[in-house]
C-alpha cells in the first residue's frame, strides 16, 4: 500500500500554488473562456469551414462540415534529419486512418521546426538551439489558431522540441493534448566504447576515420539516440506528467507494438474531447502536481539539466511559477533509482528491459514520492503509469500489470536500495551567483574542487589550450558570455572529452559557465547555467585568470574565494561574430528580450 504524500512534495506543491495564485487564476480564466465558446468549428462561417477541409478526403467532409464527430489536429515536428523524428513521416496517415475507424477525423494542423543538436554540437547553429524552443511554441500556436480542432496530438521527441510543443499545448489549454513518442533506435555500439574513441581522438591516438566509424556505429538507425540525454529525459517527463500513454516512451520504431500504441493514443485523443463524457483539457493535467511529479522523475532517473530550464518555461505557459528552489528541495529527498548512460553503462533499451519507467513510478508511489492522484490523458491516478502495453490477439495494444520490480538492479533499483539517497541535480549558490550541477554521474570525491580559474570566451579556445598542453595543474575552466542574452546559450558538450582526459591524468578539473552542457554530460563536475550571466554583468564577468573559485556540490556552494574580486568592474566582450551567420541574425530580437535562465530563458 502506498504511503501518504511526502511532506516535502506537499510543501513544494503548496508553495508553487501559492506563489502562482494570480498567474494561474488568469490562465484558467482564459481557458474557461475558450471552453465556454465550445468547439471552434461551430462558430466559423461557411467560407471558413470550406477552406478548412477543402482538401480532405470525401469520406471525411460530411463529418467535418457538420462538426458531429471530434476532429484531431496533428502538430508534427517531422523531418528526416533527426533520427528520432524520421519515423513520424508516416504517422499522419496512420492517425487519419485510426481516427476514421473510431468515428472521428484528423488533419495535420501544421509543422514546427526541429533541429538536431547532435549535428550542431560545437557548431555555429547551436547558438539558436535554445531559441528554437520558443519558435516551436509559436509555430504550434499558428497551427492550432485555425480553431477547427477538438483535441490535438503532438509528434516530437528531441531536446527543445517537446518543451516547445508543451508550451504551445498549454497555451491552448482548453484542448486535450496527447503526445506521441517515436521510440529509441535499437542498441548499437555501447556508450562507453563511443566515449573511449572520442577521448582517443582528442588525444590524437586515432584519426577522424576511426572516430566517424565509431559515431556511425552508435547512431545507426531511426529512433532516439539511446543514451539518457535530453531527448529521452523528455520522454520520461511526458509519462510522469501524464501526457503520454503509459509505458510507451521506449518502444522501438517500426514495430507492431509501436504502431499499436500510436493507434491507441489516437483513440484516446478522440475520447477525451468536449464531445464525449471524459473531457480532459490539457490545462487540467498541467497543474502543480504534474510539474512536481516531473521534477521527481527528473531527479529519480538522473535526467538532463536542460530540463531545469525547460520545466520553468513550460510551467509559466500554464500559469505556474517554478523556481530553482523547488528543484533543490525535491532533489534533497528524491532517491536516484536509475543508472542509464551517462550515469551508468546501460542505454535506454536496457533500462526499458529492466523494468524502466513503470518500475520507477511504482517504487516512487510506494513511498509517497509522487502525487498519486495527478490527472493524465488516461485517468486520475498515476497507478496507470505502472502498467505496460502488450499486443492482444487482434494486434491492438492492451495495458497489463508491469514488472513487479527491477529485473536488473545494476540499472533500476528499488526505493529501499537506491543508487544514492538524493537526486541527480544540485543547486549551487554563492558569491559567483547561482548554478546547477548534474552530480549523478560525478564521483563523490570530485564533488568539491577549489582551484585557480582559466578564462575562455568559447569552447574552441579551451580545446586549443588543451592541444597546446596548457593545463598542467588543477584548474577550473570558466567559459563565459555563453548565456541566453549573449549568444543563445549553446551547449558546450564538445568540452566533455577534453575535460575528461584532464581528469584521467589526475588533475582536479571543473567547468563553470553561464552556458549549458548537453543532457549527456557526465563525469566532470560542471557548474552550469550560472546566473546572472556575464552579459548582465554577473560576477562571472569579473573573474581573471588565476582567481580562486570553489565549486562544492556537497554543501551547494559556488564562491569566489577572494571577496576583492567582486569590487572589480565586469569585463565586456565583442560578441558580433557569434550573432551573425547560420541564421543567428534572425534571432536578434530573441537575444534582446529573453528572460534570465532562472526564469526559463523564455520570450513569453
UniProtKB/TrEMBL annotation:
InterPro entries: 6-phosphgluc_deHydtase, Dihydro-acid_dehy_C, DiOHA_6PGluconate_deHydtase_CS, ILV_EDD_C, ILV_EDD_N, IlvD/EDD_N. Its EC number is 4.2.1.12. Pathway: Carbohydrate metabolism; Entner-Doudoroff pathway. SUPFAM superfamilies: IlvD/EDD N-terminal domain-like, LeuD/IlvD-like. Pfam families: ILV_EDD_C (PF24877), ILVD_EDD_N (PF00920). Residues 410-601 form the Dihydroxy-acid/6-phosphogluconate dehydratase C-terminal domain. Keywords: 4Fe-4S, Carbohydrate metabolism, Gluconate utilization, Iron, Iron-sulfur, Lyase, Metal-binding. The keyword 4Fe-4S applies. Its cofactor is [4Fe-4S] cluster. Binds 1 [4Fe-4S] cluster. GO terms for biological process: D-gluconate metabolic process; Entner-Doudoroff pathway through 6-phosphogluconate. Residues 70-383 form the Dihydroxy-acid/6-phosphogluconate dehydratase N-terminal domain. One of its GO terms (cellular component) is cytosol. [4Fe-4S] cluster binds at residues 158, 225. This is Phosphogluconate dehydratase. The lineage of its organism: Bacteria, Pseudomonadati, Pseudomonadota, Alphaproteobacteria, Hyphomicrobiales.
Amino acid at each position: 500500500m502506498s504511503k501518504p504524500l511526502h511532506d516535502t512534495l506537499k510543501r513544494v506543491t503548496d508553495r508553487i500554488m501559492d506563489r502562482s495564485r494570480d498567474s494561474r487564476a488568469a490562465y484558467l480564466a482564459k481557458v474557461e473562456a475558450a471552453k465556454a465558446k465550445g468547439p471552434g468549428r461551430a462558430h466559423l462561417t461557411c467560407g471558413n469551414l470550406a477552406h478548412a477541409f477543402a482538401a480532405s478526403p470525401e469520406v471525411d467532409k460530411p463529418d467535418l462540415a457538420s462538426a458531429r464527430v471530434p476532429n484531431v489536429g496533428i502538430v508534427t515536428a517531422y523531418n528526416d534529419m533527426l533520427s528520432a523524428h524520421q519515423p513520424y513521416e508516416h504517422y499522419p496517415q496512420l492517425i487519419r486512418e485510426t481516427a476514421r475507424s473510431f468515428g472521428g477525423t484528423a488533419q495535420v494542423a501544421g509543422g514546427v521546426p526541429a533541429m538536431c543538436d547532435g549535428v550542431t554540437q560545437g557548431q555555429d547553429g547551436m547558438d539558436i538551439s535554445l531559441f528554437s524552443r520558443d519558435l516551436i511554441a509559436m509555430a504550434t500556436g499558428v497551427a492550432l489558431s485555425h480553431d477547427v480542432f477538438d483535441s490535438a496530438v503532438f509528434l516530437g521527441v528531441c531536446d527543445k522540441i517537446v518543451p516547445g510543443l508543451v508550451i504551445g499545448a498549454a497555451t491552448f489549454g482548453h484542448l486535450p493534448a496527447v503526445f506521441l513518442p517515436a521510440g529509441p533506435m535499437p542498441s548499437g555500439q555501447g556508450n562507453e566504447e563511443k566515449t573511449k574513441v572520442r577521448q582517443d581522438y582528442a588525444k590524437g591516438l586515432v584519426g577522424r576515420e576511426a572516430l566517424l566509424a565509431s559515431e556511425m556505429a552508435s547512431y545507426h538507425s531511426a529512433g532516439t539516440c539511446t543514451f539518457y540525454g535530453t531527448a529521452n529525459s523528455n520522454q520520461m517527463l511526458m509519462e510522469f506528467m501524464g501526457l503520454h500513454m503509459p509505458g510507451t516512451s521506449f518502444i522501438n520504431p517500426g514495430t507492431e507494438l509501436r504502431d499499436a500504441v500510436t493507434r491507441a493514443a489516437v483513440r484516446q485523443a478522440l475520447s477525451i474531447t468536449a464531445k464525449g463524457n471524459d473531457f480532459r483539457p490539457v490545462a487540467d493535467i498541467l497543474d502543480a502536481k504534474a510539474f512536481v511529479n516531473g521534477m521527481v522523475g527528473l531527479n529519480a532517473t538522473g535526467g538532463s539539466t536542460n530540463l531545469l530550464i525547460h520545466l520553468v518555461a513550460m510551467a509559466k505557459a500554464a500559469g505556474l511559477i517554478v523556481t530553482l528552489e523547488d528543484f533543490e528541495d525535491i532533489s534533497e529527498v528524491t532517491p536516484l533509482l536509475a543508472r542509464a548512460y551517462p550515469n551508468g553503462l546501460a542505454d535506454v533499451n536496457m533500462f526499458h528491459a529492466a523494468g524502466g519507467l513503470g518500475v520507477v513510478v511504482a517504487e516512487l508511489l510506494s513511498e509517497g514520492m509522487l502525487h498519486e492522484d495527478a490527472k493524465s490523458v488516461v485517468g486520475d491516478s498515476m497507478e496507470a503509469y505502472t502498467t505496460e502495453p502488450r499486443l492482444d490477439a487482434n494486434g491492438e495494444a492492451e495495458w497489463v500489470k508491469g514488472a513487479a520490480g527491477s529485473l536488473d538492479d545494476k540499472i533500476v533499483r528499488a526505493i529501499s536500495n537506491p543508487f544514492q539517497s538524493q537526486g541527480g541535480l544540485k543547486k549551487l549558490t554563492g558569491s559567483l551567483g547561482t548554478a546547477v550541477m548534474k552530480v549523478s554521474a560525478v564521483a563523490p570525491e570530485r564533488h568539491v574542487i577549489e582551484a585557480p580559474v582559466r578564462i575562455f570566451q568559447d569552447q574552441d579556445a579551451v580545446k586549443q589550450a588543451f592541444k597546446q598542453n596548457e593545463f598542467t595543474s588543477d584548474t577550473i575552466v570558466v567559459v563565459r558570455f555563453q548565456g541566453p542574452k549573449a549568444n543563445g546559450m549553446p551547449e558546450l558538450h564538445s568540452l566533455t572529452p577534453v575535460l575528461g582526459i584532464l581528469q584521467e591524468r589526475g588533475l582536479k578539473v571543473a567547468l563553470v559557465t553561464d552556458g549549458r552542457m548537453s543532457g549527456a554530460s557526465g563525469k566532470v563536475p560542471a557548474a552550469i547555467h550560472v546566473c546572472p550571466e556575464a552579459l548582465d554583468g554577473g560576477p562571472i564577468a569579473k573573474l581573471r585568470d588565476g582567481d580562486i573559485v570553489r565549486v562544492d556540490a556537497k554543501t551547494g556552494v559556488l564562491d569566489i574565494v577572494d571577496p576583492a574580486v567582486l569590487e572589480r568592474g565586469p569585463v565586456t566582450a565583442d560578441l558580433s561574430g557569434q550573432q551573425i551567420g547560420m541564421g543567428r541574425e534572425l534571432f536578434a530580437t530573441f537575444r534582446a528580450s529573453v528572460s534570465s535562465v532562472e526564469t526559463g530563458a523564455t520570450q513569453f
